[in-house]
Design brief:
- The complex is a heterodimer of chains A (310) and B (273).
- Chain A is α/β, with parallel strands linked by helices and 310 residues long.
- Chain A contains 13 helices and 14 strands.
- In chain A, helix 11 links the parallel strand 13 and strand 14.
- The radius of gyration of chain A is 18 Å and the shape is globular.
- Chain A starts with a strand and ends with a helix.
- Chain B has 273 residues and is an alpha/beta fold.
- Chain B has a single domain, classed as Rossmann fold.
- Chain B has 10 helices and 7 strands.
- In chain B, the strands form 2 sheets. Chain B has a 5-stranded parallel β-sheet, sandwiched between helices.
- Chain B starts with 5 loop residues before the first helix and ends with a helix.
- Classes of the chains: A alpha/beta (310), B alpha/beta (273).
- Bound molecules: thiamine diphosphate and magnesium ion.
């Protein structure tokens, strides 16, 4: 797989592109637009861009107000800060009134590397999923981030888009068949299903290759939408392959693993294994080394898959 | 603790600056310019006879506290803690490496001398107020010093703490604002203008001093005065320059969150002496 841009960069470029087509789109950021990449929008549409400073709660409620007045706000900050510092504001100014606000959390996961745990969003997906009315999307690569931004613009309700800092492999060399709430089957197999999102999709594909070399045929699903979950795809995977491994760059509680396991339990209970951050904060270090130390690599997926089958 | 004489303090400030530049350039990431602007403040605190501390007993209850609310200036805190004897100076070379307790932002569970885990801006003054009130309840005359970024005080929580501290007459709480005029994406005057800053703190009921934050004598005098404030908390607005004294060697004024290249670091170290 060829290395593409980071999903935050793809988000920033896609948003600037949308700005030209949707005059109602406004963008708000909290003194980090060079990190979240809303700077691309800010440069082209300065009159529709608001840098509110280091003030995430104000950022979120201002966006809620703008949505109430008919604008279509996108707001961005680090996943950790926007979700954790402004949660009540997300709840009361966005989720409860079901405002058309798109919330973007960058620097998600531990792959931000050296800046360390305080800057890593590891619980953002769980928090976003817990908010009624929110759609939650975690794209895998540059092309699917563009597609996600386009698709979320069609939506008139709150949504959370999670993007990352490092450049990531291109999973989709053709335009992805991206529909919110619909898993994308990247590979078919009968022995088990690997379900992943974000940068773990590329890892799952790599794991499937490796498993194939040991004669194990794995289905791979890109579960880019965590909410609403494609329960049918989970039910089929459970029925047709009998075993599931879920991989995400997030704490093991409340993210993709939890919602997929819930769906499987409801439709067709099967053994499931979880590749995720094991209820711990990470530390500073190079991204690749952190992913290895905290168990978020293709090798970890392979190990869990084999232990399920063994 | 007896403070160093002025000349030695100035030498100590230069040492901290060298550590900041060397450790971030070696790490290949970090916030050297944010660390450099507050060197005199931190030097005066740890080596000018202001803070009461014992590196052999980091949790000694009657100690004073220093809380780095602007946690991204961790290289400055680590340099001071190493020079103060909390851990070997050699450890500074492990900044931001896998396994090192010298993380990108301070983590109190991993490094002695770190009083608060920071990095999400806006929380340090509240944590400091908690320490100040708890120490008072326990009968200690400890003082709590909190270093804030000027951009950081955009956060509403800072002003919540400002009001609480007055309500509880926390005269053992001293805030220091590193007024370097820049935040991540530009000058504070453009991102969110703070002025008139001193009158704001005054209106909330704080004792306010404004000083040149690179003049060690002014810094020491202000800290001494703040330490004996009665009945109300104190704030020192330290006017500083981000990246002092090597701003002109860098490609832009703010140069936020980026290490110096090897060549830039060499020039910077030569300038600092
Ligand atoms: C809650 C929160 N929001 C955003 C950030 C990202 N961030 C890190 S440093 C910084 C700018 C800080 O400016 P200032 O407080 O003036 O410190 P300086 O670097 O100028 O010393 C920002 C926005 C953060 N660390 N925490
Ligand atoms: Mg500043």
């Amino acid at each position: 797989m060829k290395l593409g841009k980071s999903t935050r960069e793809a988000f920033g470029l896609a948003l600037a592109d949308l700005g030209a087509r949707y005059p109602d789109i406004v963008v708000l950021d909290g003194d980090v637009h060079n990190s979240t990449r809303t700077e691309h929008f800010a440069k082209r549409f300065p009159e529709r861009f608001f840098n509110v400073g280091i003030a995430e709660s104000n950022l979120v409620s201002m966006a809620g107000g703008m949505a109430g007045a008919g604008k279509r706000p996108w707001l961005a900050s680090f996943a950790a800060f926007v979700m954790c510092n402004a949660y009540d504001q997300l709840r009361m100014s966005v989720a409860f009134p079901c405002a058309d606000v798109k919330v973007v959390g960058s620097h998600a996961g531990i792959s931000i590397g050296e800046d360390g745990p305080s800057q890593m969003g590891i619980e953002d997906v769980a928090l976003a999923c817990a908010l009624p009315n929110f759609t939650v999307v975690v794209p895998a690569d540059e092309p699917s981030t563009w597609a996600a931004v386009e698709a979320l613009t069609e939506l008139r309700t709150p949504a959370y888009l999670r993007v990352g800092r490092p450049n990531v492999p291109i999973v989709y060399d053709q335009p992805p068949p991206f529909r919110i709430g619909q898993a994308i089957r990247l590979r078919d197999g009968k022995d088990l299903t690997l379900i992943a999102n974000g940068l773990m999709v590329a890892a799952a594909l790599q794991a499937a290759e490796e498993l194939a070399r040991s004669g194990i045929q794995a289905r791979v699903l890109d579960m880019h939408t965590v909410k609403p979950l494609d329960e049918q795809a989970v039910a089929e995977a459970a029925r047709e392959t009998g075993r599931i491994v879920i991989a995400e760059e997030h704490t093991i509680y409340g993210g993709l693993g939890s919602v997929v396991a819930m769906a499987a339990a409801r439709h067709h209970p099967v053994p499931i294994r979880f590749v995720a951050l094991k209820d711990t904060f990470a530390e500073s270090g190079p991204p690749e080394a952190l992913l290895a130390k905290y168990g978020l690599t293709a090798g970890d997926i392979v190990r869990e898959a084999k232990s399920l089958l063994g | 603790m007896a403070g160093l004489p002025l000349q030695e303090l100035e030498a100590k400030a230069r040492t901290l600056r060298r550590h900041i530049i060397t450790s971030t350039t070696q790490a290949g990431s970090g916030h050297p310019t944010s660390s450099l602007s507050a060197v005199e403040v931190v030097t005066a605190l740890y080596f000018g006879g202001i803070l009461r501390y014992d590196p052999l007993r980091p949790n000694w209850p009657p100690r004073d506290r220093f809380i780095l609310s602007k946690g991204h200036a961790a290289p400055l805190l680590y340099a001071a803690l190493a020079e103060a004897g909390y851990f070997p100076v050699e450890a500074l070379a492990t900044l931001r490496q896998l396994g090192s307790p010298l993380e990108g932002h301070p983590n109190l569970r991993r490094l002695p001398g770190v009083e608060a885990s920071t990095g999400s801006l806006g929380q340090g003054l509240s944590i400091g107020l908690g320490h100040a009130l708890a120490a008072r309840m326990d009968g200690y005359d400890s003082r709590v010093y909190v270093l804030l970024g000027d951009g950081e005080i955009d956060q509403g929580q800072v002003w919540e703490a400002v009001m609480s501290a007055v309500k509880y007459r926390a005269d053992n709480l001293i805030a220091i604002v590193d007024r370097n005029g820049y935040q991540q994406t530009g000058p504070t005057a453009e991102v969110l203008d703070l002025e008139p800053l001193a009158p704001k703190w005054e209106a909330f009921g704080w004792a306010v001093q404004e000083i040149n934050g690179h003049d060690l004598t002014q810094v020491l005098t202000a800290l001494q005065k703040a330490g004996v404030s009665r009945g109300k908390p104190s704030v020192i607005i330290a006017r500083t320059q981000k990246g002092y004294p090597i701003m002109d060697l860098l490609s832009e004024a703010n140069y936020h969150g980026k290490p110096l290249s090897l060549a830039e670091a060499e020039k910077a170290l030569a300038r600092i002496g």
